[in-house]
Amino acid sequence: MCVNTPRALLCVLVLGSSFLCAQMSGLRTINPSLPSAGTNYADFASAVAALQSSGVNGPVVFEVYDDAGAFTAPMTFNTVNVVWTTTLPSIVAGANGTAVLVLADWAGSSALNTVTFRAAAGEHPVLDANGQSMGIFWNGADHTSVEGLEIRGAVYDAISIYSEAQHGQVINASVRRCRIHDCGGSGVVIYGNLPHPQNVLLESNFFWNLQQTNAGGFNTLARFGYVSWRRQNGLIIRGNTFAVTSAAGGLFAVLGSNPGSSNETAPISISDNIVIKYAAASRPILTLQDIGTQSGIPQVMDHNCWNDATGAPLAHSGPSGNVVSLNLNAWRSVSARELQSMDTDPQLIDPIQGNLHVAAGSAVIGAGTSGSSAMDIDGDVRDYAPDIGADEVTLGQLPAVQVLGAGSLNSSGAVALLSSPQLPTLGNTGFAMVLDQAPANTNAWVFASVGTAAQPVTIAAGCHVWLELQSMMILVQAGVAPLGPLPTSASGSTAFTLPLPQDPALAGLVLGMQAVMLDSGVANGFALSNALRLTLN
Question: How far is Cα 195 from Cα 168, in angstroms, rounded to an integer?
């Protein structure tokens, strides 16, 4: 394939192989304010229907826009064991529940062929499930993520990762950077009735004002907390913030399990979370019951901030949850975990109203683990000494250069490396980026975006785009980017200059940069470098 212009390169970057076959891959949008045509869908239902009819043959990303207001249109689902009654006037035959987003098990999904529904850059999409059973019903979807969405108002649960035989087994479900609040039941339920959901990841989310009624089926088995689980394997809960302002139900726990099978396992990790609790004075933050003869306590459990303003016990554990730990010191003794955890007010800005960002001076700042989530609730990159909870506090960010990902293998047998020997300091008109190990004697460009993608978009084997695609296209259309073309030397090197003005309005601006090179010696006709995330100041 011959690609010889920046515009053609841009098309390759944005579209990837989306139109080369009937199966889906690449970037799509869900924007009700635009015509439903090409790669844009008017609602969640049409996007899911397209996935079901076409299947996937590569990573698919749906960027969701808020231009038409909150998403409220109901989709339907069916469960055998429970009827999820709602206030909606009717439910179609063969269904007994509704949700704003009902996922499905589509052909071709795998660890490489993932599907992501995420907020587009600068957007704040809301799934308003008022009067509906759930905000999101997972319905057997594998290798699927939701990111940056607000889910509110469900009669029962905000997100139900519940499976029965007809739904299929949920594998590798992820909920990242979401705001989950004001529902009758749980924020997230993971429940295999059967088979067991596998490898659920919850990270960098805000949870508040949930369990307002504790109504609905299984409410004492698997739906009794802000996050509850039963019959699962591989659960990770990290870097989240919980403000417990409502807590209905006699078995309430903020985070809790009720084992129902000898084949289930304790979560892999519960770490780097904040819980501040104002309700349910007799109920604990944690219920981690034994699974038969095995402990229900995760192997990794540390760097949490547990704070209960009601003075209730911190944890129930052991057989049937009959081992009560009144405070953090007692819990450390019982669990042999949590040596770096704390019991202190995390100083959230306004937890009652759902502003769970951390105020300056909080003890949770810099107290997290380096292996926590890569980005916080707002899309800010975690520091080398990350904060506990979903919010990474930025106190006058210093200029910084961060390397994201790796380049693709090019015809020289190497992987191109984009780097900078300088910090992106405002006023540095000679700020330079150096490209090494590129194909020799070819043309190279550097594309730019405002911010970077939370997860890369794979456009070909080994080719991962880390730029935020919407802003990248805007910069190209405005003639601001790409930089180049510049020829590479016989050794495969060149340098790009990006003058940085002395403009205080740009302080804290984050730019993504990634190089593209013509390369006739590889099947795609081009090669990519790694990306750089530049924080200006």
Answer: 7
Contact between 253 and 316 under an 8 Å Cβ cutoff? The reply is yes
Phi, psi for residue 162 in degrees, rounded to 5: -110, 140
Q: Which two tokens stand for residue 359?
A: 């105020």
Q: Which residue has the tokens 């062929």?
A: 113
Residue 202 near residue 178 (C-beta atoms within 8 A): no
Mean pLDDT across 177-203: 95
Is residue 315 within 8 A of residue 322, CB to CB? The reply is no
How far the first Cα of the chain sits from its last, in Å, is: 41
DSSP 386: P
Pairing status of strand 159-163 against strand 188-192: parallel
Nearest C-alpha neighbor of 533 from the set 383, 380, 352, 401: 401
Cβ neighbours of residue 201 closer than 8 Å, sequence gap 6 or more: 172, 173, 174, 175, 176, 236
Q: Does pLDDT of 15 surpass 50? A: no
Per-residue pLDDT tens digits for 22-46: 689 999 999 999 999 999 999 999 9
- The 8-class DSSP code of residue 250 comes to T
Question: Two tokens at 91?
Answer: 């439910």
By the 10 Å C-beta count (0-12 exposed, 13-18 middle, 19+ buried), 113 is classed as buried
- Closest alpha carbon to 522 in 404, 443, 411: 411
Number of H helices, E strands in the chain: 4, 38
DSSP per-residue string spanning 408-462? -B-TTSSB-EEE-SS---TT-TT-EEEEESPPTT-EEEEEEEESEEEEEEEEETT
Distance CA 188, CA 402 (A): 33
Q: What angle do CA 222, 316, 320 make, to 5 degrees?
A: 65
Q: Determine the angle formed by the axes of helices 469-477 and 6-15, rounding to 10 degrees.
A: 160
* Per-residue pLDDT tens digits for 79-89: 888 888 776 55
pLDDT of residue 134 exceeding 90, the answer is yes
Q: Is 245 exposed, middle or buried (0-12, 13-18, 19+ CB in 10 A)?
A: buried
CA–CA dist 74, 442 (Å, integer): 52
Q: How much is the pTM?
A: 0.75
**β-bridge pairing 97-102 and 134-137:** parallel
Cβ-Cβ contacts under 8 Å for 35 (sequence gap 6 or more): none
Query: Which of 305, 389, 395 is closest to 355 using CA atoms?
Result: 389
Closest by CA to 138, choosing from 109, 99, 81, is 99
**How crowded is the C-beta side of 116, counted as CA atoms within 13 Å?**
26
Measured CA to CA, the distance from residue 11 to residue 455 in angstroms comes to 19
Q: Phi/psi at 506 (nearest 5 deg)?
A: -90, -5
Return the H-helix or E-strand segment holding 75: strand 75-77
- Reading the block at residue 518, the tokens are 């013509």
For residues 203 and 273, give the distance between their C-alpha atoms in angstroms, rounded to a whole number: 9
Whole-number percent of the chain with pLDDT over 90: 74
